[in-house]
Amino acid sequence: MSETLLLERVERFLAVLRHCQVLGISAHAADAKGLTLRLPYSEAIVGNPETGVIHGGAITTLMDTTCGISTLCVLPEFEICPTLDLRIDYMHPAEPHKDVFGFAECYRVTPNIIFTRGIAYQDDPEQPIAHVVGTFMRLGKSVGARTAEKGAGA
């Protein structure tokens, strides 16, 4: 699949996730190697008003979403793949007033499970805010098609 088509698929999926709309999460890049999403800095996601540091829950949401949607980079057709397990190791707080980027890749795909890993970073991917690993259950193409049909009719 071309990078343009993949990015369009990612943007369509993001558009139906209400939490992504509220947080302003957007697609930054997508290709066969992985997906990068952007979480814009906002006062609404600050965890500590005295320092302006972003709440860890917002970064967790970014990384769960990035890992989950990265499955689109490796699957030939759309499938719903809910989170089975997600582990995030925080290295240091995000700097205030800067966007956070989440990158994730799928490193193993089985008939039932997809294994992902990634990082959250700001200016430099070599200085990650957090590392993440996640597993996602494959529900199959038919579940995704039924869900898409219901969404289109709503």
UniProtKB/TrEMBL annotation:
One Pfam family from the record: 4HBT
Alphabetically ordered keywords of this record: Hydrolase
UniProt-recorded Gene Ontology molecular function terms: 1,4-dihydroxy-2-naphthoyl-CoA thioesterase activity
Domain of life according to the entry: Bacteria
Annotated coiled-coil segments of the chain: none
Keyword Hydrolase: yes
GO CC terms: cytosol
Ranges for domain Thioesterase: 52-127
Name the record gives this protein: Thioesterase domain-containing protein
